[in-house]
Design brief:
single chain, alpha+beta, YojJ-like (1, 7-stranded mixed β-sheet, two-stranded antiparallel ribbon, elongated
């Protein structure tokens, strides 16, 4: 028997209706979260205006406007997929980050961290400065917008190439979003904590700054010493040995241990 909460006139509100509303609300919330801080949010506002216009046109029977909206809607779905392709891709990637899915893909998670640690080892040995940021639950779309969007596969070769001296993107940070490099050459916010103002360089201040404003984990490699540090929750752990880097990252990120 269907559980009925209440009904107004001929409208019944059941448990299934509640679940339906919660699911739709969740998807709308995730969509707005993904687009926060990006140009796509402005596009969404424009679409909402069009929907409102369509409602008015059909309510008051504006025939010319109805004809225009009807013809536009025939290709509307295709246009939406093209316009929101980056957000749809990120949404699918973030679904894959869910704990339930991560249990099915432990090997892939290990491989990603292995590639990052291998790249950090090479960058440290060559004393090439680097900032490698792991996005977590707090989105970094506003940071991605400051750099060059890549959507590249995560590999030590790609990461090392990005941070090679004199390359166009070597001075900024890379953002790892789900299972790919979302962007490179990104500008991070600098920490305002006076503790870091005197004896720390710009990269370290930027790493701490991002970790203060989000739950991101940031690997920073010193250009002067090659020393590896990890910033998380506004704290900078300096001088991490390459052998301990993988263990530290797996502990913070909640990735499975190496088998």
């Amino acid at each position: 028997m269907m559980i009925e909460f209440f009904h107004i006139a001929f409208l019944k509100f059941t448990f299934i209706d509640l679940i339906d509303i919660l699911i739709v609300s969740f998807f709308i919330y995730k969509l707005l979260t993904l687009m926060r801080g990006t140009k796509s949010l402005q596009i969404l506002m424009g679409l909402l205006f069009l929907f409102l216009t369509a409602f008015i046109a059909f309510w008051f029977q504006f025939e010319a406007l109805k004809w225009l909206i009807t013809n536009i809607s025939t290709v509307g779905i295709i246009v939406l997929v093209i316009v929101f392709q980056p957000e749809l891709r990120r949404a699918l990637m973030q679904m894959g980050q869910n704990r339930m899915f991560r249990k099915l893909f432990k090997t892939e998670s290990r491989n990603i961290l292995d590639e990052v640690c291998r790249a950090a080892e090479q960058l440290s040995a060559r004393k090439w400065g680097a900032l490698i940021c792991f996005e977590r639950s707090v989105g970094l779309n506003h940071v991605i917008e400051t750099g060059k969007k890549l959507g590249a596969e995560i590999s030590s070769e790609v990461i090392v190439t990005i941070f090679a001296p004199h390359t166009p993107l070597h001075d900024g940070a890379i953002i790892i979003q789900a299972n790919y490099i979302a962007a490179a050459g990104c500008t991070l916010p600098l920490t305002q904590n006076p503790v870091f103002h005197q004896s720390y360089g710009t990269r370290h201040k930027a790493a701490v700054g991002l970790s203060e404003e989000s739950d991101s984990v940031v690997i920073v490699i010193s250009e002067e010493t090659g020393r590896i540090s990890v910033a998380y929750d506004g704290i900078l752990n300096r001088g991490i040995e390459i052998g301990m880097l993988s263990t530290s990252l797996r502990k913070i990120l909640g990735a499975p241990k190496k088998i």
